[in-house]
Design goal:
Rossmann fold, alpha/beta, 224 residues
Length: 224
């Protein structure tokens, strides 16, 4: 049986990819990272999902990344922007070179357990905001991962040219438990519904003609 190490954030894209890989008969080993993110609730979701699907799960402390790569996702003095996901201000949520660091560690793990693949859920909506989700980056990392060891490990990024709405459609066909995923960047008890990440998630479910099963904060004006 083929084996993959999946970078699992506990969010919508990587969770869909986990179900997708399992559905294809691939043995999945999930790896998640704590890098000081405000929305660390995503790691709780990742644990719940892996426990539900009997997927081995590691959480790696990568908080040192916050020391060298500050971002609105990790620093209290930098506010998480609201608005459309593809807006220029969303670049404040980029953690410089985060995916290269995570992919390097995931690759080391894959080599150590004899896995065939390393997988992560970069998609088309990320291209303008996060340089380490662009096709050019993926190409270079594919080459680096394939040549960093005597073992052959392939980088899988199957959603690279898909929108989040298209990913949700895939997930719905696989009965993904989206109620146990977390997307909001603000780190509250409920999703804010206003940050770029929440906005994109809600638009994705609307595109798929589905209702997002998680709870969102409701302002007093909205509840009147």
């Amino acid at each position: 049986m083929a084996k993959a190490v999946l970078i699992l954030s506990g969010g919508l894209d990587s969770t869909t990819l986990m179900y997708d890989l399992l559905n294809k008969g691939i043995e999945v080993h999930a790896i998640s990272f704590f890098y000081g993110q405000k929305h660390s609730k995503e790691l709780e979701c990742a644990h719940i999902l892996c426990d539900k699907l009997n997927v081995p799960h590691k959480i790696i402390d990568l908080e040192v990344l916050n020391e060298v790569a500050p971002s609105a996702l990790t620093r209290s003095e930098i506010e998480v922007p609201e608005g459309q996901y593809d807006s220029d201000n969303m670049k404040a949520t980029a953690v410089p070179n985060r995916n290269m660091v995570m992919l390097a560690l995931a690759t080391a793990y894959a080599i150590s357990i004899g896995a065939n693949y390393v997988a992560y859920g970069a998609h088309a909506g990320d291209h303008t905001i996060y340089p380490d989700c662009r096709p050019k980056f993926v190409k270079h990392m594919t080459d680096a991962i394939a040549s960093c060891d005597w073992s052959k490990v392939e980088l899988l990024v199957p959603y690279l040219y898909m929108t989040k709405g298209e990913i949700v459609k895939v997930g719905l066909s696989l009965d993904v438990d989206y109620s146990s995923t977390w997307t909001c960047y603000k780190g509250g008890d409920k999703a804010c519904g206003k940050c770029g990440s929440c906005t994109e998630r809600l638009e994705a479910f609307a595109f798929a003609n589905a209702v997002d099963p998680i709870e969102y904060e409701t302002t007093e004006e909205e509840s009147e």
